[in-house]
Amino acid sequence: MGGRGVASTGSMSAQDCLFCKMTKGEIPAEVVHDDGEVFAFKDIHPAAPTHLLVIPYKHVETLLEFERDDEALIGRMVTVATKLAREAGIGESGYRLVANCNRDGGQSVYHVHFHVLGGRRFGWPPD
After folding, report:
1. How many angstroms separate the CA atoms of 15 and 92, rounded?
2. Mind telling me the catalytic residues?
3. Are the beta carbons of 62 and 6 closer than 8 angstroms?
4. Domain 14-118 of CATH type 3.30.428.10
5. Nearest 5°: phi and psi at 57?
6. What is the mean pLDDT of residues 38-45?
7. In which element (H, E) is residue 53 found?
8. 94 CB contacts (<8 Å, ≥6 apart)?
9. Disulfide: which of 2, 66, 95, 113 matches 70 by Cβ 3.0-4.6 Å?
10. What is the pLDDT of residues 8-37, one digit of tens each?
11. Rounded to an integer, what distance in angstroms lies between the CA atom of residue 92 and that of residue 75?
């Protein structure tokens, strides 16, 4: 099943994962951060003037799979996202940090990732 809109079963292997291939350099990415634990790159289909993706090296398909042992990793991802927003010049004006979970939540790549979006005004609720 592995990530097509149902609760993940962990069946997508890291070797088949688009984002895992990016961390290994098998697929090119415009990398903006890499510390061996968290990897960030520019989105190839940006939804805002600044649109970055922040991912863990650890292959986790959906937010539902994070466990208590992952709390430090999740915190590290948020810290990296904040650092990147500041570096991109959108920290003070504002930005949106988004994580989608499964099909109805808008997840299209089944490797947990945060979108860092900024450089324009966003409305609420999101569309």
Report:
1. 38
2. 113
3. no
4. yes
5. -65, -35
6. 97
7. strand 50-56
8. 118, 122
9. 66
10. 444 567 778 999 999 999 999 999 999 999
11. 20
| CA 45/CA 50 separation, integer angstroms | 11
Q: How confident is the model at residue 127 (pLDDT cuts 50, 70, 90)?
A: low
Task: Please report which helix (H) or strand (E) contains residue 20, including its range.
Answer: helix 18-23
Per-residue tokens: 15: 């070797």
Helix (H) or strand (E) holding 118: strand 114-118
55 forms bridges with which residues in the sheet? 39
List phi, psi (to 5°) of 92. Answer: -75, -40
The pTM score is 0.88
**Angle ∠(75,88,83) on CA atoms, nearest 5:** 20
Interatomic CA distance for residues 124 and 108, integer angstroms: 22
Answer whether 8's CB lies under 8 Å from 65's CB. yes
